[in-house]
Amino acid sequence: MGILLLLLNGCAQQMHPNKRVMIVVEKRGHSIHVKTSGRGFSLDTPFLIGSLTKQFTGVVCLEHLANLLDANITTLMTEQDFESVLKSIPDGDLWEPLDFYHFRGITVKQLLTHSTGLDYNTGEKVAAFKYQNLNFDLLGKILESVTGQSYENLSRALFKQAGMTNTGFHSDFSRMQLAEKLGYPQICFDSLTEVMNPAGGIISTARDLLQWNDFLSPNNYFDRLTAHTVDTNEPEFLGRYGFGILVLENNDNKLFFHDGAIILPQGPSFTSFLSYNPKQKTTTVCFEVLEANTCEIVP
Length: 299
Prior knowledge:
The chain has 299 residues and is α+β, with helices and mostly antiparallel strands. 31% of the residues lie in helices and 22% in strands. It has helices at residues 2-13, 53-64, 79-88, 108-112, 134-147, 151-162, 175-182, 197-200, 206-216, 221-225; strands at residues 19-27, 30-37, 47-48, 118-119, 124-125, 168-169, 202-204, 230-231, 240-241, 246-250, 253-263, 269-277, 282-290.
């Protein structure tokens, strides 16, 4: 934990003047380090967690697709399902090289680990690992096709099971709520949409993310999420990628982690980080907001 904490402290100390940061470290259920800078957050401030959402989608898949991880995804969804996902994504209509038949032979497991071997922007084959949000948007549609329930309701059931009381999707929080809680004008959140929920659409709090790791650990989810991993070959990724989560191993030490980012066209940028060290039973949460000139904090 020492190296990680040092890096996070450096993040908070060497800040852009328009940056707000909160770092929370919890060990064995007890908060041992809370640091805020700029106009602070509380443990219950709602935050756009971006791609941290992927590990939630990974757990939902383990719950509902465990026997289908090696299934060809074109047998689990229709061509119309596939096209509806592309249409729901900003600029998805620009991916003309992609069609349903590119995905024949690709499995659920490959979507979860970003190892389809396809570059969705060009339709060309690439190295085994390529991080692409579309993988998780497709997983959301597959979950709906297999279970007959919406991805959002499946996830809400998981939040409840994990004891998370202030976590949901954009539709669960009004623009006014977010503006008041985060201290920005409501116009800053007008660009929020419901697209890309399985890849990055969750809103949560530091307290709920601590609760999330407290739920994952005793139920063996960290090991299950990383039972199958692939090497990452992109410089911004450390370790190996599992089902929506990364794992970094050094001898008998492991660190499970992921980060997330949401950039609002008319508002601030949100970045987040969540990790768990099983040997020390330590969770680290980091939230950061970089304010846009057009969206200053309301006094």
